[in-house]
């Protein structure tokens, strides 16, 4: 079924070019010095890491699936991950306790100024399309990075995590898979729902948010951070989705676009409760030494989400596209 | 009809702040007789009455600052 596999993206610098060359079988992997000198949140390093991770999801057309476990590539990926993790540990806020880290998320700011506030109040359709194109890198594999944590949990935490994932996966019904609901939203907006279609368009800040989930999901050593990350997503999703649902209604984006966010208002109000009480509560009972890791997952997620929000708003406030490659002319912003 | 002794009781989780959590699926009958249904594995019922999706929780109980 090679026709269903995504195309390889365009390189964004020497690191990503070397990784892509290795996948095509045409060139050597980047030297360690190249990895050390590249801006850690920049396009080149984040794309190189994204491409390494994508081999664990759906792979790429023309790339042998066995390269997922290629030792040379894994060595490169580990060097990229070391830089990313070290930067996050240095740059994100540090809370020691899980509850302390989550407390700030549970207070709703009266005068919030994030992306969902912007889109609710004055977002135009071209900005909503850009937001959906960017987020499609995650939402078209919604819940997949988190499924990797299941074998690493036990008892109450495992049962609760599996229950939330089951809900994310549509409760056994393909037409209710959250990834499918997002594809329907994209169709309403006139976007292409092909998996990986907007990889070239996505900005470095977006790639970093998806890389974080893959990093936490793929490493058992980071299971606490994965759980903290997941809790952050679920806690912030409900009010954010309400604002985005209002943005969809106000701009007439379409019924499936409204439904995706309406569904998340309700679903994630439940998921938040289950993740806080049973997934985090269960994991802390089981492995209390993971508390600082859970807090790190929360703090790193907030840090990268804030960076993404600032990047998107900086472009949109000036009427500029946030995408690296434009949408087709009938969908794109015409200045 | 008495309940079968093999029926497991349905668990409801209460908390001082936040929704009532009920194992799904549930039907909720509102004062005007409307019956709403949710078939999630767990359902969060609004207790603060601020939800815009009442009777379902939409996190409106949260503190604002």
From TrEMBL, chain A:
SUPFAM superfamilies: Heme oxygenase-like. SMART domains: Haem_oxygenase_2. Pfam families: Haem_oxygenas_2. This is Iron-containing redox enzyme family protein. It comes from Streptomyces composti. The lineage of its organism: Bacteria, Bacillati, Actinomycetota, Actinomycetes, Kitasatosporales.
Automatic annotation (TrEMBL), chain B:
The keyword Iron-sulfur applies. Residues 23-65 form the Iron-binding zinc finger CDGSH type domain. Signal peptide: none annotated. Keywords: 2Fe-2S, Iron, Iron-sulfur, Metal-binding. The keyword Metal-binding applies. This is CDGSH iron-sulfur domain-containing protein. It comes from Streptomyces composti.
């Amino acid at each position: 079924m090679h026709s269903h596999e995504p195309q390889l993206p365009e390189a964004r610098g020497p690191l990503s070019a070397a990784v892509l060359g290795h996948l095509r079988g045409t060139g050597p992997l980047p030297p360690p010095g190249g990895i050390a000198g590249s801006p850690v949140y920049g396009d080149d390093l984040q794309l190189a890491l994204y491409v390494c991770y994508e081999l664990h999801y759906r792979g790429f057309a023309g790339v042998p699936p066995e390269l997922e476990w290629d030792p040379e590539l894994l060595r490169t990926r580990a060097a990229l991950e070391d830089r990313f993790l070290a930067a996050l540990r240095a740059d994100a806020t540090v809370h020691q306790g899980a509850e302390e880290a989550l407390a700030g998320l549970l207070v709703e700011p009266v005068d919030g100024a994030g992306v969902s506030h912007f889109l609710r109040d004055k977002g135009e359709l071209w900005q909503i399309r850009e937001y959906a194109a960017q987020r499609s890198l995650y939402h078209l594999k919604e819940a997949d990075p988190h499924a990797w944590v299941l074998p690493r949990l036990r008892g109450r935490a495992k049962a609760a995590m599996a229950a939330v994932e089951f809900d994310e996966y549509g409760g056994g019904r393909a037409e209710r898979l959250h990834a499918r609901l997002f594809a329907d939203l994209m169709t309403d907006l006139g976007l292409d729902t092909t998996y990986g279609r907007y990889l070239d368009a996505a900005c470095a800040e977006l790639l970093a948010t998806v890389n974080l989930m893959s990093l936490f999901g793929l490493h058992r050593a980071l299971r606490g951070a994965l759980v903290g990350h997941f809790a952050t997503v679920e806690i912030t999703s409900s009010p954010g989705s309400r604002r985005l649902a209002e943005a969809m209604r106000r701009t007439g984006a379409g019924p499936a676009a409204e439904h995706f966010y309406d569904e998340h208002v309700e679903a994630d109000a439940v998921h938040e409760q289950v993740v806080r009480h049973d997934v985090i509560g269960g994991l802390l009972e089981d492995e209390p030494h993971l508390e600082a890791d859970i807090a790190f997952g929360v703090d790193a997620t907030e840090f990268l989400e804030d960076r993404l929000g600032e990047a998107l708003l900086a472009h949109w406030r000036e009427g500029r596209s946030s995408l690296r490659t434009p949408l087709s002319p009938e969908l794109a912003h015409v200045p | 009809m008495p309940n079968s002794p093999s029926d497991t009781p349905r668990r409801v989780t209460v908390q001082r702040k936040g929704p009532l959590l009920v194992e799904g699926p549930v039907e909720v009958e509102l004062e005007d007789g409307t019956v709403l249904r949710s078939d999630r594995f767990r359902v969060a019922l609004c207790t603060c009455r601020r939800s815009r999706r009442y009777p379902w929780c939409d996190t409106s109980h949260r503190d604002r600052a």
